[in-house]
Amino acid sequence: MENIIECPGCGLNLNHHQIPLNKNYNASGECYQKFSKLSSYTIGKQDIDFILQHAIDTYSAQHSGNGMKPITTAFSLIGLYYALEKGFNGRQVQRVHTLLSRKKFNWKQLQPPDHSAYYLTVMDVLNEQPGESRDEMIQKWMLDV
């Protein structure tokens, strides 16, 4: 019988390999490893729209809590807002983050929703073929979060 671990952020069940998590994400090490794989894919695209920023914001928003800095959650949600509501690409969202980081603001800790509220996870994105299909799934994941 395999040992399974449930990610506390998104609810994804993965084989437990006791992977340590060095980040302040509300995630299992196994789930974060999947996100690292997705990050490698998005970085490798070297696309002008910088889809990596959307993946970072989506994963961070979905895995907020458990010691994550309030600014990280806020920036993730703000990034998703600008991407989904205003049509900003990843480079433009990154610019918003840069401008916001110059402001001194006491970001409040936000209560994350229960992970059962999520339909899609990083694994759903990775299960898609690299290219247009995977990129479209990132968009669906963003909308879900």
Rounded to the nearest angstrom, the distance between the terminal CA atoms is: 32 Å
Largest sheet: 2 strands, antiparallel
Q: Could you estimate the helical fraction of the residues in percent?
A: 40-55%
Task: Indicate the overall shape.
Answer: globular
Which radius of gyration do the C-alpha atoms yield?
A: 15 Å
Mean pLDDT, rounded to whole units? 91
Beta-strand percent range: under 5%
Q: Can you list the strand order of the major beta sheet?
A: 1-2
How many beta-strand runs? 2
Total helices: the number is 6
Question: What pattern of helices and strands is seen along the backbone?
Answer: EEHHHHHH
- Which structural category fits the helices and strands? mainly alpha
Give a description of the structure.
- The chain has helices at 29-45, 51-62, 70-86, 90-101, 122-126, 132-144, and strands at 4-6, 13-15.
- The protein is mainly α and 145 residues long.
- The protein has a two-stranded antiparallel sheet.
- α1 (29-45) packs antiparallel against α2 (51-62) and α2 packs across α3.
